[in-house]
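[audit] Reproducing an earlier prediction to check determinism. Same input, same settings, fresh worker. If the tokens differ from the archived copy the diff job will pick it up downstream; this log only records the rerun itself.
[audit] input (315 residues):
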Amino acid sequence: MTNELKHAFGDKNNSEFVISPEGKIVVSRTWSDPEQLREELAGFVGESETVTKPSKNGQQPKRTEYTRGVVPRVKRPSGASVLKIEPVIVAEGDEEETVPPVEPFYAKLRAEATRAVMDGDEGELYLGFHLDPIYEVHWNNLAAPLKFSISAPDGVELEVTEGEAAKVEEKADLDPREFLVGIKGAGDEPLRLRVDYFACDNGDKWCKAIRQEYLIHFQTDRDAGRVQGGGGSRDRSKMQRPPGGGNTKGRMPNPDVIFTRFDADKDGKITKEEATGPMERRFPMMDTDKDGVVTREELKSRFERMRGGGRSPAK
């Protein structure tokens, strides 16, 4: 799926539309309202004589009895970009195949990177593993905690290449497992992440050891939406963070590095099509002569204005 329809209808995360048989939009809302929608549909086609409920089909919804809020949330970096994630489907023999995975991705990966990382400088990478509610599973804290490892391409420096979730006293919970990893030198090549965890059915019928892999691309994912309930304590000592330290330097990124990163066809200018993420939003301000492209000189001039005489670009 390319999300072309979502883009055409305004890119709202929970929007709602009713389209008539003639193809005309008769209802448009930026946020879904199920009760209002039912009334509107009744007005268009009449009331339904029978309303099927889960209990009538012998499908009583499962009652979640597992705890939330027992694992401190990571304070995600301010202004971070959500990165494009590509699940890697691996068949037996470790050969990538275009076939469905043996197991669903019960825990979905969300990756975000600070502006400095997207600009090719040193910054932070957020990794969040969120249980997908559609599969009705939980973390079994009596089993081994979630672990991950990262393989980076040449030239990319990682604060750590592996991590493990903290021990949780509760026997089971639904909280995400989150980490912050220092990173420097990200470019066009993706990271490859492997994660191991136990997924356990909320009906207590099974508990499985799962190993799955992702490619993390340093491109902004405009379709990622938002994670509700994030934030957590500002006390960085309470974060789930792999050991190793590391910091983010408060320097402005090097404009030459940024220009090289975005000039995909290496023709000496950045077009609107090549500009993504923060660059896309700032393109009109950088294109000072309004000729539809940004030159290296225009980019450097923009950085000079941003610097205001106070800081020098990183070298």
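[audit] rerun output stored. Observation attached for the diff report: The chain has three domains: 4-47, 81-238, 255-307.
[audit] end
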